[in-house]
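Usage

Read records sequentially. Each one opens with the input sequence:
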Amino acid sequence: MATDTRGLNVVRIRELSRGFGDRTVLRDIDLEIARGEFVALLGRSGSGKSTLLRALAELDENVTGSGELSVPTERAVVFQDSRLLPWTRVLDNVILGLGGKGAAERGKAALAEVGLAGREKAWPRELSGGEQQRVALARSLVREPKLLLADEPFGALDALTRIKMHALLQDLCAEHKPAVLLVTHDVDEAVVLADRVLVLDDGVLSTDLRVDVPRPRRHSDPEFIRAREVLLNALGVDTEPRPAALEKEKQAS
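and closes with the structure output:
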């Protein structure tokens, strides 16, 4: 059973294991995430990324497991699909389940933060994919979570919209200061956004890289390139140029 953390770290995991039947998905995971820290999680398909995120969200009821897990009760999840209720208007989607006086005003303020002021009465079908994800972010942050869990929230968006959403998420996190765990397959996205990048390999955290690149981060920055290469190598992607490619480049020049 998860409990609230009381110290500097919002997330504390010790020797966490999770499995399905006879198959072990996570093995002896140790992890801490500090208040306001942005952590990205990379890994090949089937490495256990979503299983770890679901454990932190306490959505992994039908699994076997062991270990210690401590997370705050004030947490929110953003998925790749915005998961808006199509029969409910935008503002009502944002404040769904949010009780108390002033919920509507808080919802309007959250929509303004994500650039959707004036769209409170719109139906989800009237919004673009990027706008729907903005509503999902507003719905998550209106609750002022101490922990924000994001499972590939920009995976279905086009490249230009993703860049805009990266900037928006950075601004929102700087304002609200939740601890963040972002699951992604995109190495560049991880390096652009995160303070730390983890690589999960066959259920084990094989890499924990702190990204010391000044913001705003540029892909041409030598430190950005170095971090990218470290992570790609950790994922089993060879970044060294092949001899044939070098010869072709030499001939072209």
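Summary fields computed downstream for this record:
- The longest strand covers residues 9-20.
- Residues 19 and 25 are 5 Å apart (CA to CA).
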